[in-house]
Design brief:
Blueprint: E1 5-11, H1 14-27, E2 31-36, H2 39-43, H3 60-65, H4 67-84, E3 88-92, H5 95-108, E4 114-118, H6 123-126, H7 130-137, E5 140-143, H8 149-153, E6 158-161, E7 184-188, H9 193-210, E8 215-220, H10 225-232, E9 240-243, H11 247-252, E10 256-260, H12 263-270, E11 275-279, H13 283-292, H14 300-305, E12 312-314, H15 320-330, H16 333-344, H17 357-369
Parallel strand pairs: 1-2, 1-3, 3-4, 4-5, 5-6, 7-8, 7-10, 8-9, 10-11, 11-12
């Protein structure tokens, strides 16, 4: 009997957990998995070492505040990898955590697995020179877009473009008519509890200002559901909570979304949902971002098209007044039709070949190890 491939898989965020589960399903019985994941990967058969909520942090102060927990989890992960002696360590996104784990495993000596990473770090935004450091850490990289590949192959890192996972089976909301006046509003504060805590008070003021003429919805994930439920219980106008697993059905009926910057902005763009993108961080993180970030935009569809399609409100400018001002601009049906037509221009940029990204990665993992 052929020996099964042993893969230690790590996903630190909800989007990575979804992709990780798909990869696990595609590989099926060709490998055994151990590692760290959320509900989706657990459903696929993974017994997670610890909750992924321990890794879902953003911003300098969030990292500092949870430094002890992160350090402990890094050490636990390294010890588990050393003990398991896997053939491959597959890390999905969460590059800061992944890099620290890989470096410590390499330094531990003994059995050294191959280190593969999914989601190319955005060196085109933070500085192309960073690709050289990534090339020294990982043995193989799975990028989402063709334009990312040369940044890393330049330094000898085997890099494969697989397409964006959220484009797998996701289609524009063509069945939903564009209504004359928007009624259904999706408020999306993100999947990290730290960003939810920053945005939820802003969203509450927006709801109070816009009033009861709209129906409000908030998608929740396992790491945020309890906090959002407790906080919105005190709102005068209470939004309906929707499980993240049902978010696409929500987006199909959403007239306008107000969303935290991240994977969800790409989902909204692919589904042609008019949206306003917000990203609220602390003043120090914002200042460093302005110095270090080399791109003009935060949302991926704007970056891919090279223009502002989704309006972005970032840092200190994330106020109810500024968001409502952009919301009013989208109320006329003509403005929403124009935005949808511009989103359609990016449709072909999300995909890569006939296979799904998870299938491409799964087949390559098995093939590369043989």
């Amino acid at each position: 009997m052929e020996k099964k491939l042993k893969i230690f898989i790590i996903a630190g965020e909800v989007s990575g957990d979804v992709l990780g589960a798909k990869i696990m399903h595609e590989i099926g019985g060709r490998a055994e998995f151990i590692g760290i994941g959320g509900d989706n990967m657990k459903s696929a058969g993974l017994r997670s070492l610890f909750p992924i909520s321990d890794l879902a942090v953003m911003g300098i102060f969030d990292v500092l505040a949870r430094a002890r927990t992160l350090t402990r989890r890094i050490d636990e992960t390294v010890a588990a990898i050393v003990a398991a002696k896997p053939d491959i360590v597959l890390t999905i996104d969460s590059p800061g955590f992944a890099k620290r784990v890989v470096k410590k495993v390499r330094a531990a000596g003994g059995h050294v697995p191959r280190f593969y990473h999914v989601v190319a770090p955005q060196v085109w935004a933070w500085g192309p020179w960073r690709a050289k450091k990534i090339a020294k850490i990982f043995d193989r990289l799975y990028a989402f877009f063709d334009f990312e590949v040369p940044y890393f192959t330049k330094y000898g890192l085997n890099t494969i473009a697989v397409g964006h996972p959220i484009a797998d089976g996701l289609q524009p909301s063509s069945k939903k008519p564009i209504v004359k006046s928007p009624k259904s509003i999706a408020l999306i504060p993100g999947s990290r509890i730290s960003e939810v805590k920053k945005l939820l008070p802003v969203f509450r003021t927006i709801v109070d200002e816009l009033g009861p003429n709209y129906k409000y919805y908030i998608p929740v994930v396992e790491t945020t559901e309890q906090y959002i439920r407790e906080q919105t219980a005190h709102w005068t106008i209470k939004p309906e909570r929707i499980a993240a697993s049902a978010r696409y059905k929500l987006f199909e009926k959403t007239d306008i979304a107000i969303a935290a910057s991240g994977t969800v902005s790409a989902e909204l763009a692919i589904m042609h949902v008019p949206a306003i993108i917000v990203y609220k961080v602390g003043p120090v993180t914002e200042m460093l971002g302005r110095i270090l970030i080399k791109t003009k935009w935060a949302s991926l569809v704007n970056i891919l098209l090279g223009k502002t399609v989704y309006p972005e409100i970032l840092g200190r400018t994330v106020t109810p007044d500024n968001i409502i001002r952009e919301f009013r601009k989208l109320e006329p049906i003509a403005a929403r039709k124009k935005m949808i037509s511009e989103l359609a221009r990016a449709d072909k940029l999300w995909y890569h070949g006939k296979k799904s990204p998870a299938k491409i990665i799964a087949d390559d993992l098995v093939k590369a190890y043989k």
